[in-house]
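Fold sample X.
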Amino acid sequence: MSISLPGRRQALKTIGLTAGVSLLKVPASSAATEKKPPVSFKFSLNMSTIRGQKLGFIEELRTAAKAGFSSVEIWIDTFQAYLQNGGSTAEARKIIDDLGVTVENAIGFAKWIAEDELTRKTALKQLQEEMDLLAKIGCKRIAASPMGATALPLIDLNTITERYITVLQMGRQTGIKPLVEMWGGSENLKKISHVLYVATESGHKEASVLLDAFHIFKGGSDPESLSFVGEHAIEVFHINDYPANITPAKISEPDRIYPGDGIAPLRQMLKVLKNPNKPVILSLEVFNESYYAQDALLVAKTGLAKMKAIAAGI
């Protein structure tokens, strides 16, 4: 049966109305998912920030969680002190899970890079033991710093690369990823270009660098160099700030301050580092004596608020 012209118009109106109603019935959750902006960063607390309060391993974790952090970086010596005083990896793992925090990285100082062979062998044994412990509490990474080679003479970067490959192979066996760390005050691995060379030259898919706003300034790297650090090369970035009127030669660890309270080009850095496909972990790492004199929870909350303010809209 044919439909008259007025009938056709009415049919089209009805179809249009029905379609509109269907669109209105799209689940709210779907619409919210479509509009939700990608996450470029995760916020973490490096326990250096509240280390001076001497809370102990478990209370540091609780403080971070109470402050609103879901990610943390622990210090191996504090963790080991907890174990030596009767704690266990099983207990620690349960507490970590109950708090809902992720141990993203661990700060240790094994001298894997040292020139002296005996020192290096001892350090690798130490590193193996540390990785085994960290794996039991679900830690994902460990810092591979230039400790043991901070003074002259310079070590050839190819030699450092070979030693880093050894550490990477150890990490593969334990499930812990070692991050080759830049220290601006060191003679070795003091620049972005140094650690980036070691990571890329290793040819290892797990190779990654650990950078730090303070060390970029201290070591004389140009912040623009961050643009050469590809998304596969960085997972954790230590965020902090530093005051004006102090030179790289004079600045020291206790001079670190909250993000946004100094002159570091942090927003410029974060714009380069952001990666919606794999959020970069921004970890607050400061060693400020005036913060150590304050309540640890207040310090952690203040730090998180300032980190979020710096990263807002990037």
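Fold sample Y, listed below.
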Amino acid sequence: MEVVQMILAAKSFFERRRKGYFMAGFIADGWNEYEIIDCGDGMKLERWGDVVLARPDPQVIWKKVSPKRWHNADAVYHRSNKGGGAWEYKNKIPSKWTVNYKNLKFYIEPMGFKHTGLFPEQAANWDFIIEKIKERVNEGGTVKMLNLFGYTGAATVAAASAGAAVTHVDAAKGMVTRARENVELSGLQNASVRYLVDDAFKFVSREIRRGNTYDAIVMDPPSYGRGPGGEVWKLEESIYDFLEESSKLLSDKPLFFILNSYTTGLSPVVTENMLSIILKKRFGGNVSAGDLCIPITSGGILLPCGSAARWCAK
């Protein structure tokens, strides 16, 4: 019986792939206060509220569609041949400002290594998180969500806004502080959010020993890192084992599991396979994966910005 089910699932998978259901991935097209104005020559031109930034993007290997619009950039990030880079400010802009995504608010701040404190393509995941949590809450249930490698807390804000109790974990104290600020900025200061400055791997191990469980897990692991003892962590070599460990924290009736990846060469099919192997046999449900994409205003095309794999109960 199990073999028959596997064959039918495979036929369904390949039929959906043949029809092109996986081509576009997950599209973050719900923004009003953010847009990619144009892309070209290794750069992207973005509007964050009223501020226009130009930042490098290695996937942009085509030419600019609207070269004249690039003169409107308020700040440009230039890479250095020695590594890193720096911002060049063409116009005076705030040190930090806010952007709205539907009912959510976030601080934006030009940082080192071209970052702004927010990954706008993740809006496709925020919508998914809110939808799934609200479905369970509206049915009278509760949701506990674990956000691992939580960065500045956008997924935490989304989940809290939908009524989940969230545990936010990141090893960088400054990022956890900004996550708290983003939660409060969205008027969710009374939401049930636990902020932890901790190593995600050690935290998961301790939670398993404690017997704690969660109904939903979101993780955005780095491609490369070093542990407190100097040990090297590479995503491709360690992610499967960590997914297996993290899945032990899921409750008896889990809601979803999201794995984000910004690692070049780790395709959405690979992350989809891992979630399918680890979660579907145990819980059933569905797995989908694809590039996280943002529409580009000039040219009417999409920019892929990392990828995501999602398991959900239904």
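Sample Y note: The mean pLDDT is 91.
Also: Helices lie at 2-18, 123-138, 154-161, 173-185, 200-210, 235-247, 268-283.
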